Amino acid sequence: MPFGLQPIHLIFILLAALIIFGPKRLPEIGRGIGKALNEFRQGAKEMSEGFQEEISKKNESAPMMVADETAAPSPQDARIYCIRCGTSNLAGAHYCNHCGNALTTE
Predict the structure, then answer these.
(1) What number of H helices and E strands is found in the chain?
(2) What pLDDT score does 93 carry?
């Protein structure tokens, strides 16, 4: 059973609800909970469908990027290696991303 509830637990919960709300209000409360769950499911389904549509639109409209193998690396792709830990850092970095050591640009 869900959440580790045994049948006896469910009986006690139903008896407590019957005592608190009365026999006339329980069907109304059950219908209200059922409608709320149904609306929640429909909303979640619509939202996930909307996300799927947006993703498919984005994938269809995005141009395919093909890397030019003969192109020289841009200056932004250049790397500096930290003297202390040997980690690769971008050329414009002043400090190591791994250990925080000041990088020399020489």
Answers:
(1) 2, 2
(2) 84
